[in-house]
Amino acid sequence: MVTTDVGGNREVVSSPELGQVVPFGDGQRLTDAIANALRQTWDRARIRRHAEDNTWDKRIDTLEAEFHDLLRRRAKPPP
Q1: Are residues 1 and 38 in the same domain?
Q2: 20 vs 4: CA distance, rounded Å
Q3: pLDDT at residue 55 in the model
Q4: CB atoms within 10 A of CB 9
Q5: Predicted pLDDT at 37
Q6: DSSP tag of 54
Q7: Mind listing the pLDDT tens digit for each residue in 14-64?
Q8: For residue 69, is it within any domain?
Q9: Mean pLDDT calculated for residue range 68-73
């Protein structure tokens, strides 16, 4: 994957094995990244696993659990 550094793209493409993030608006870097990506051999199974492990539904479940945990910790009086 080649993408620009907008929104949550950097979190999605979180390692070089998954792709490359380039600055938004930098046409030359985007062109170079696409050319480089086309020359590489990608571990498609790894990329697919990463995508399946990071669906919105799973992300939302994780965030909800973190928020509930944070609320529980704040609700407890200090020892």
Answers
A1: yes
A2: 8
A3: 86
A4: 16
A5: 96
A6: T
A7: 999 999 999 999 999 999 999 999 999 999 999 999 989 888 888 898 899
A8: yes
A9: 92
49 in a structural domain: no
The single-letter DSSP state of residue 57 is H
Give the residue from 38, 31, 37 showing the smallest Cα distance to 16.
37
Return the residue matching tokens 């493409």: 13
Q: Which domain holds residue 60?
A: 54-79
Same domain, 35 and 59: no
Nearest 5°: the CA angle 35, 15, 3 is 45
- What pLDDT score does 26 carry? 96
**Any domain includes 47:** no
Measured CA to CA, the distance from residue 60 to residue 28 in angstroms comes to 35
